[in-house]
What we know:
Layout: E1 5-11, H1 18-31, E2 36-38, H2 49-59, E3 62-63, H3 67-73, H4 81-97, E4 101-106, E5 109-114, H5 130-133, E6 143-146, E7 152-156, E8 162-166, E9 178-186, E10 194-201, H6 205-214, H7 222-231
Parallel strand pairs: 1-2, 2-3, 5-6, 6-8
Antiparallel strand pairs: 1-9, 4-5, 7-8, 9-10
Amino acid sequence: MTEGMRTIALVADLHGNLPAVQTLDRDLTRRGIREIFCLGDIVGKGPSSAETFDWAFARCRVLLQGNWDSGVGYMQFPNDRFYYRQLGPERMQKLREMPREYSLTLSGRKIRLLHGRPVMRELVPPSAAPEKLECLFDPDYQVVGYADVHRQGLRMAGTRGILFNTGAVGNGLGVPMVQYALMTGSVTDAEAPFDIAFVTLPYDREAAIRDAEAVQDGLPRWDSYCRELRTGRYSR
Length: 236
């Protein structure tokens, strides 16, 4: 990497999909990426929430709370007992303590990172009307990165700045692959080149489906989860 430059991998929506996370880990290692930020939803949906939780806490320097992390951590939905039993009280406590957003400056740009919900009141895709997105830049952010939608995207939000979505590692929609983003910029406060790159990786989806089928009697909506992995279309 060029001296004075910083590359951050932005990953999100691991969702208990261990084969997807293992593929992500190999790719990050191959690229020599040392700084990883996770934008939330490390648990839920898939059968391996304890494993994806442990990976995230071992590998990510920044960990933000997503709507699934909050819902599971605070035991908001009784049907999610499978995840409560798998994670145990110590992990559940950590889910409740995760911050909801993070900010930094790169290449002279003030950047806001969040999962989406629960900071957002509703799920808002990057293609939404500008008036639904511009508030994310308040008070003075120039770049906003988020997850939650499970689809990668980038756009200018009116005149406010760059808005992008990382996509999902373990539950990619549209493109049913591992999806994440790389953000590269200068460590100085002066304006400098700034890059956002999207990465998609094929992974062993059938192995992930077999993992879910092996515990189908306990995993909530296991059939919908498997259809989403196969088709890349939301199934709930």
